[in-house]
Amino acid sequence: MFLKKAKGTSAPARKDLTRLKTPHTYAIIFFVVLFCWILTFLVPAGKFSTHTIEYTDADGQIATRTVLMADTFRYSYRLNTDFVADALADISADPSLMEELGVGSEALNALLQTDSSAWTQEDLDAVGLSDDEMYSLYGEAFYDTGKKLHKIAGIWGTEDFGGFGFLNYVFEGLVSGDRSGSAVGICALILVVGGAFGIIMKTGAIDAGIYAFIKRTRGLERLALPLLFILFSLGGATFGMAEECIPFAMIMVPFVIALGYDSIVAVTVTYVASQVGNAASWMSPFSVAVAQGIAGIPVLSGATFRLVMWVVVTLASAGFMMVYAERIRKSPQKSVVYSGDSYFRSRLDSVSEQEREFNLGHKLILLEMLAVLIWIIWGVTQKGFYIPEIASQFFVMGFAAGVTAILFHLNGMTINGMASAFQSGVSDLAGTAVVVGMAKGILLVLGGSEANVPSTLNTILYGIGTLLEGVPAFIGAWFMYIFQSLFNLVVTSNSGQAALTMPIMAPLSDLVGVPRQIAVLAYQLGAGFVDAFTPVSASLIGVLGVARIEWGKWAKFQIKMQAFFFLMGTIIIGVAVAIHLH
Q1: Cβ-contact 56, 299 below 8 angstroms
Q2: Main-chain dihedrals φ then ψ at residue 219, nearest 5 degrees
Q3: Strand 143-144 vs strand 62-68: parallel, antiparallel, or unpaired?
Q4: Which of 161, 268, 365, 391 is the most buried (most CB within 10 A)?
Q5: Three-state DSSP state, 217
Q6: Tens digits of residue pLDDT in 381-398
Q7: How many angstroms separate the Cα of 550 from the Cα of each of 252, 265, 285, 490, 494?
Q8: What is residue 527's predicted lDDT score, i.e. its pLDDT?
C-alpha cells in the first residue's frame, strides 16, 4: 500500500552522489595505515640476507650498494634451540671458524653455560652470530619452522616504551630517517622553503612579475605551459628532480592561475612533468643508473631507446595536460579545486595598480631568485647537493629578498615584517610536513623497508616475485611493470625501490625469457609514473601542500592521467619485448 504525500509538504531531497565530499588527506592516510596494520595479521613476516655489490655509476666511478640476495628469503621463525646448542658447541670447538665469524670465546662459552631453551636471536647477536651468518652456515635448520611469525605493531606504544604502536604512526613517522631523507629532512625542507617563500610573497615581486609577463606576452600564454612541462621533464630525466619542485611550485601556482588555469595544471606542469621525465629517463643517476648497476648490465645502456621514449612520453603527456588545461580555461568552474583556488585568485585580484607596477626592486628580487635556482641546479648536478644544502640555499634566497624589499621599501617591508612573513610561510606548510610523517608511518606499520629485517613488506615482495615464474615473456614483463607500480605506492624512494626489487626482478627476467634491460625499464616506468599519484610521496604531498590541494581532489584528476600513463607504459613494454631490448 502506497502512502500519499501530504499536501504542502516538499519531496524528500535526493542525495547527489556526484558531489560527495572528498575525504581529507589525513583521513585517507589513517585508513591506509589501518589496512596495512590488519594486513600484518594475515601475512607473516619475512626477510632476506643482504650483501654489498659494486657497480659503475653514471659518472664512470665505482659505487657500492647494499642489496638483498633473492635466494635467501625465509619467514621469521623462533630458534630451534636444541639444534642451536649443538651448533654453538661445534663452533666453540673450531677456533678457525670462530675467528672467521668474529666470535669471542669467552662470550660464547658464557652463553653455553645458560639455559638454551630460553635463547633468542638477540642472545646470538650478542656473541657475534647474526641471523644471516647462522643461515649461511645451517640454512633453515637452526629455525623452529613449525610456526611462521608475524611482525605486528601494538595498538599504542613507542620504539622506546612497549614497542611501536600503529596509533603512534604520526610521531614515529615524523622522526624517522635523517637530515638527508624522509621524513625528518623532507619536513625540515618544507618548513624552511615555506618560510623563505613567505618572505618572497610578502615583497610582492612574484605578483608584479606575473602581471608584467601577462601584459607583455598577451596571446602567447598557451605556449608557456607545454614549454615548462618539457623543461621540468628534462629536469626529472637528467638529475631526478623531485623535492626541488616544491619551491618551483610556489612560483608556478599563482602564475598558472593568473593565466586562467587551475592549481592542478600548476602541479602537473611542475611535479608531474618531473616524474614523467624520471619514468622515461635515459640517464638519471638515482633511478636508471642504480637499477642497471644492480641488475648487472652496463650503466646507461639502452640510452637510444630511452631517449626516443622520453621524447614521445613527454610530448604525449604535455598534450594530455593541455586538453585538460584548455577545458578549465574555458570553464573554470569545472575544476574540482575551483573553490580552493579562490585563495590565489583573491590575492591576485586584491593587488592594486600601484602594487602591480614592476619596479627595480621587484626585478632585483626575481633576478636573485633566478640566480639561486641556477645555483641549486648546479649544486645538485655537479656537487651532489641534497636536502640540507637546498634548504640552506632557499633560506638565503628568502633572506636576500627580504633585505632587498626593505632597501626598496616594497610593500612596507620591515625587519619585523620579514620575521612575521617567515612565520606565516612556515605555518602555511606545517600541515603538509605532518602529512609527510604520516605517510612514512605506513611503511613503519608494514615493518619498514630493510630487506634484512623481518617485515610483511618483504614477504609481499617475495610472493609477487614467485608468482611471475614461468609465465610468457610479455606477460612476465607486463606484470613486472604492474608490480613496480604497486610497490611504489609504499616505497617511493627510487634508489630504495631499486635496491629492494631489482635483485629479485633481474634474475626473474632471465626465467621468463626477457632481457634484464626490460626489467629495469619496468622498474623505472612503474616507479616514475606512480610517484605522481601515491599519497605516501613526500615530494608530491609537499607540492600539493604548496598548491593547497587535498590529495583526494588531486586523485580525481590524476587517476585519469595514471590510466593514460599505464597505457603508454604497457605499449612501451610491448615494444621493448618485441624488439628484445638489450
Answers
A1: yes
A2: 95, -15
A3: unpaired
A4: 268
A5: coil
A6: 788 787 899 889 989 999
A7: 18, 14, 31, 19, 24
A8: 93
Q: How many other β-carbons are positioned within 10 Å of the β-carbon of residue 440?
A: 26
CA proximity to 142, closest of 152, 156, 151, 132: 132
Does position 102 have pLDDT exceeding 60, yes or no?
yes
Alpha carbon distance 446, 457 (integer Å)? 6
Give me 148's grid cell: 611462521
Enter the C-alpha cell of residue 304: 637510444
Q: Are 203 and 360 in contact (CB under 8 A)?
A: no
Residue pLDDT, tens place only, 206-215: 888 877 877 7
Question: Cα angle at 290 between 285 and 291, to 5 degrees?
Answer: 125
* Cross-strand bridge partners of residue 65: 53
In this predicted structure, the answer to whether residue 521 has a pLDDT above a threshold of 90 is: yes
Can you name the residues that pair with 51 across neighbouring β-strands? 67
How, if at all, do strands 78-79 and 74-75 pair? unpaired
Establish how many alpha carbons lie within 13 A of residue 517's alpha carbon, considering only the half-sphere containing its beta carbon. Answer: 19
Q: Cell 610479455 appears where?
A: 474
pLDDT at 355 over 80: no
Residue 66's nearest CA partner among 90, 82, 49 is 49
Q: Is 373 exposed, middle or buried (0-12, 13-18, 19+ CB in 10 A)?
A: middle
Average pLDDT, the chain: 88
Report yes or no: 204 and 210 within 8 Å, Cβ to Cβ: no
Chain position carrying cell 605486528:
152
d(CA 505, CA 496): 14
pLDDT at residue number 68? 87
Q: 303 is written with which cell numbers?
A: 640510452
**Mean predicted confidence (pLDDT) in 440-459:** 91
Quick one: pLDDT at residue 16? 44
> Is pTM beyond 0.85 here?
no
Cα separation, 448 vs 456, whole angstroms = 9
How many Cβ atoms from other residues are within 10 Å of residue 489's Cβ? Answer: 17
**pLDDT surpasses 90 at 124:** yes
Q: Whole-angstrom Cα distance, residue 511 to residue 2?
A: 67
CA distances from 98 to 91, 114, 231 (A): 6, 19, 58
Residue with cell 626592486: 361
Residue 354 has a pLDDT of 59
8 Å CB contact between 295 and 514: no
What pLDDT score was predicted for residue 66?
A: 86
Please state the φ and ψ torsions of residue 165, each to the nearest 5 degrees. -115, 140
- Three cell numbers, residue 492: 617511493
**How many residues would you count in the chain?**
582
Please name the residues in contact with 557: beta carbons below 8 A apart, sequence gap of 6 or more: 264, 324, 336
> Which residues contact residue 378 at a Cβ distance below 8 angstroms, ignoring those fewer than 6 apart?
none
Cβ neighbour number for residue 372 with a 10 Å cutoff: 19
Q: What is the pLDDT of residues 173-204, one digit of tens each?
A: 999 888 887 788 888 988 998 899 899 989 98
